[in-house]
Amino acid sequence: xxxxxxxxxxxxxxxxxxxxxxxxxxxxxxxxxxxxxxxxxxxxxxxxxxxxxxxxxxxxxxxxxxxxxxxxxxxxxxxxxxxxxxxxxxxxxxxxxxxxxxxxxxxxxxxxxxxxxxxxxxxxxxxxxxxxxxxxxxxxxxxxxxxxxxxxxxxxxxxxxxxxxxxxxxxxxxxxxxxxxxxxxxxxxxxxxxxxxxxxxxxxxxxxxxxxxxxxxxxxxxxxxxxxxxxxxxxxxxxxxxxxxxxxxxxxxxxxxxxxxxxxxxxxxxxxxxxxxxxxxxxxxxxxxxxxxxxxxxxxxxxxxxxxxxxxxxxxxxxxxxxxxxxxxxxxxxxxxxxxxxxxxxxxxxxxxxxxxxxxxxxxxxxxxxxxxxxxxxxxxxxxxxxxxxxxxxxxxxxxxxxxxxxxxxxxxxxxxxxxxxxxxxxxxxxxxxxxxxxxxxxxxxxxxxxxxxxxxxxxx
Length: 461
Ligand code: ARG
Fold this sequence. Notes:
mainly alpha; two-stranded antiparallel ribbon; two-stranded parallel ribbon; 19 helices; 6 strands; elongated
């Protein structure tokens, strides 16, 4: 047990208490962030004359050595230290002696851990953004190739109106674009440096908090030291954004699972992204989509957990907050893994265009268009709706589609119908006529694809 705070204690900590209290098992994940934060802190202390330049250089040299040794596996992070902060400080003192003991001047582990977590989350947001952008690029590529791939659009999982694959993928593009923007917003809001807040009430040293913030790439220092050491809003915001990412991925997974079923057969998942059965040789299962759908619960759980942890914590730091880490790490890793795998599955998936088109021709997806045809010839919409209802009933009884119904039969139900009804209810017409922005008409969709391309070209992660 190597502790930073033994001075006022006369007894050793009970081993079980030590184990329960320690966070090294998981906060070792941010050894790099911890060293980066310490390096900036030391530079600031020297600039303010609190440390000498020689002390600064000695400490920075020591920290660089620790970073290199941990990275290259020469210095294992072991559980004899309570947390990553103690580990780095103890190792520094071992290496450089007394100068190392000055590292923690004007700092508390409370503002230190607040900084480490922020640096970690900030780095991860950048990686998450890059993965979402990759997903967006793949979606837009599929969209650009399928402006005229007809398929049924569904409501209540029942065929509703014809759309295109581009249009369907475009819906997901919008969802992931909002996810991307949410990540950008969180980054902007959280990007203030807590270092210099001390335990809760700042410090008595003449710290230059602007300088530290600038060295670490923050927009500036935070403005209230009590809030700074006990704010985990940004973790909650991130987990909420990731829950939404997962909700989108899970809905998409559900669709892929349905589309991949024998009954639908809209897609063929690449062999590299599906698995077989140990007993049924014919099986090719959409396990990736199912796992993504399943893992969504873990990310929601992390959000619920941190919300619950934070709700009863009086100001300022309390040890409960140590619980912010493990689930956040897991949620981030889960979301990253799911985004990467789903994108890979999507990019390699084969869309069965003929099956989709055939499916769109069934199920009376053009019934609304038949009603619109009547409206175009002066029939009020409510009456047109009733007439087409009768057409559909006729077709169901005769097991045919509206396209297969004879003109004479049309005329029996309404004399308004003419030969041009067939063209008016063809899939091509149904889709092409939906040309307002946001609708599946190929011209409207092409504009969206172009705008998406410009959006993606503009992004700098
Ligand atoms: N391991 C602690 C955490 O994750 C670090 C801060 C410790 N501060 C304290 N006052 N015990 O929150």
